[in-house]
Automatic annotation (TrEMBL):
GO terms for molecular function: NADPH binding; oxidoreductase activity, acting on NAD(P)H. It comes from Paractinoplanes atraurantiacus. It holds the Pfam family ADH_N. PANTHER family: QUINONE OXIDOREDUCTASE PIG3, QUINONE OXIDOREDUCTASE PIG3-RELATED. SMART domains: PKS_ER. InterPro entries: ADH-like_N, ER, GroES-like_sf, NAD(P)-bd_dom_sf. This is NADPH:quinone reductase. Keywords: NADP, Oxidoreductase.
Length: 320
């Protein structure tokens, strides 16, 4: 099979397309014929050397969509449509940047859809994180206000769509003036590093909930935009900065504002939620944001464009 191998952390030239032996699934594992895979920020972090406990060389990719090829000792059958994600994919064992990938059954979710693979490929990890951030991280309720810091990211678009379908009012930010019109939110805000005054001009007491996707550089300002007893969920690192030096909670977190975080895996996304979301996308009643599609052979261009923030929304690679 053909696979994309990251030989070691470094520039995009460390991503190489190679011929590798076909992986053999053990009992309880699923071999998937990959049709498409989404690109995630964590794979950029892996290439830049920010990933802990990663082995090299490695086939990256924390998610993939395709059909079951073999699944010994499981309830899945060849030909079933499935998504796979997380659980060490692309870090501790070879992931989705390949024609075939083998993953444990617990990381696989079956579904049925006539959507094109490039559309399905944009959904799994983004939906899992958006759904989990809203339900587990923020416990968002109908009628509440939600601030999304990093609104033109794939996760930002998806979270806005889900939150609005839940009956929330959404405020979303972008750092690029030309992308303000792309935000699918009730209030689009230009982020110059300090948006709390803009938020409080709209909602003087602050928003009920906020999703931090940019990272630690903007987190204090996001906290300042949130009301007493409101919640900020840290779930993204578009800035590639995720630690707070000399963290002093009492001085850092405004009095009464709650700070939490979210990260999940395949078991965090209920199969019914995945199926319902795909059905709604097919019906035109749910839009998780723009999708940019690249061919397998252009993986280096993919990583360059993601690193340089040249694309808005989700990036998907089609596997021939």
């Amino acid at each position: 099979m053909r696979a994309i191998v990251l030989t070691s952390p470094g520039p995009v030239e460390h991503l190489e397309i190679r011929d590798l032996p076909m992986p053999t699934p053990k009992l309880g594992e699923v071999r998937i014929r990959v049709k498409a895979f989404g690109i995630n920020r964590s794979e950029l972090h892996l290439r830049l050397g920010y990933a802990e406990n990663a082995r090299f060389p490695i086939v990256p990719g924390i998610e993939a969509v395709g059909v079951v090829d073999e699944a010994p000792g499981t309830d899945l059958s060849p030909g079933q449509q499935v998504v796979a994600m997380m659980g060490g994919m692309g870090r501790s064992f070879d992931g989705g940047y390949a024609e075939y990938t083998v993953v444990p059954r617990r990381q696989v979710i079956p579904f049925q859809s006539s959507l094109p693979w490039e559309t399905v490929g944009a959904v799994p990890e983004t939906l899992q994180t958006a759904y989990g951030s809203l339900t587990v991280g923020l416990d968002l309720r109908p009628g509440q206000t939600l601030l999304i810091r990093g609104g033109t990211s794939a996760l930002g678009y998806a979270t806005a769509a889900l939150a609005r379908s839940m009956g929330a009012t959404v405020l979303a930010t972008t750092r690029q003036p030309g992308r303000l019109g792309e935000l699918t939110a009730d209030h689009a805000l230009l982020d110059d590093g300090r948006i709390a005054p803009q938020v409080r001009a709209l909602y003087p007491e602050g928003v009920d909930a906020a999703l931090e996707l940019v990272g630690t550089p903007t987190l204090p300002d996001t906290l300042a935009a949130t009301r007493v007893h409101g919640t900020v969920c840290f779930a993204g690192m578009l800035s590639n900065q995720w630690t707070v030096p000399d963290f002093y909670p009492t001085g850092y977190i405004p009095s009464g504002v709650r700070l939490t975080g979210y990260s999940g895996d395949a078991t965090s996304l209920p199969p019914a939620v995945l199926q319902d979301s795909l059905d709604r996308i097919a019906a035109g009643t749910l839009d998780l944001g723009p999708v940019t599609v690249y061919p397998f052979e252009r993986i280096r261009d993919v990583h360059r464009d993601v690193e340089d923030n040249k694309v808005s929304g989700k990036v998907v690679v089609l596997v021939p």
